[in-house]
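Action item from last week, closing it out:
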Amino acid sequence: MTPTLLTPEAPVAETTTHISTRVVSTPITPESIEAARRLAADVALKVKQDLRMGREHQQGRVNWITAIVMGLFHVAAIGALFCFSWTHLAVFCVMYFFAINVGIGMAYHRLLTHRGYRVPKWLEYFVTACGTMALEGGPIFWVATHRVHHQNSDHDGDPHTPQDGTWWAHAGWIISGRALHSETALLGRYAPDLTRDKGHVWLSKYHYLPLVVTGLLQIALGAALAPAGHAVMGGLTMLLWGTALRVVVGLHATWLVNSATHLFGSRRFETKDDSRNSWWVALLTGGEGWHNNHHAHPVSARHGLTWYEFDINYYGIWVMEKLGLARKVQVAKFDPKNPKPAGVL
């Protein structure tokens, strides 16, 4: 055992410290108030400009890459109309269902953006890959943009409100301003759940790959089904229907949700925006046209809230739930005699 040397404690001398506090007051002047206002305005503008959302932040710029690609797809879609066949139409319908109904409606919108239900991760990646075939960007871009829309719906900062113009709400916002598809860190402020997921980061970075792969498969199918000596034309026309025309129709169907359903239709719920229920947009999109219902109850996986409101996207979710693939499916409940948005008593 090691001996311990004890030493007497040294006496502690009491000392008193006097702290002199001097308060320096700065007089409030009109100049200081104006400077504070300018600083607050600069900060607010910086926050808005970070995501470049809303027409006033675009400064009249055109994203020429996006505009040219959109233009080429529209030209190709017109060309598809001159080479109709029932086989082409069948491929169009199948691709449209997987890209718009499964990919955009069920995956990008109701699953990833609002988490209205849950599925196994492998299935989440598959339906998300379907969404990339719609040519509406990767999941992080789409989800972040839509969450900004809900936060500022029909107010300053809304990416595509008709209050900035009908054309702007429909397609102008897509071809104007800076492309944000690769701005993962910036978009992550509104989609942190996706930016932490390596699978969704990869799908966002390479969102064009599923479209390219399915396009090549369509060429191969068209060539195989074409008469002898017409393989090239058969592959090309199949691509025009399965990709070009299908993408263009799908884009305009989705854009109509941004424009038409904030202008035309009925309102069941008194929301703080101009959202409307539109039966014909719902038919084009598989149920996304019941937009007033959705804005009143955004987490609900079901948008058509009555038996006559056609909602094929919800029917798909319902089937997955019955098969044990979907769980925690959220369905809005409301009083038909006194319908109120979620959170309103």
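Closing note: Residues 231-259 form the longest helix (29 residues).
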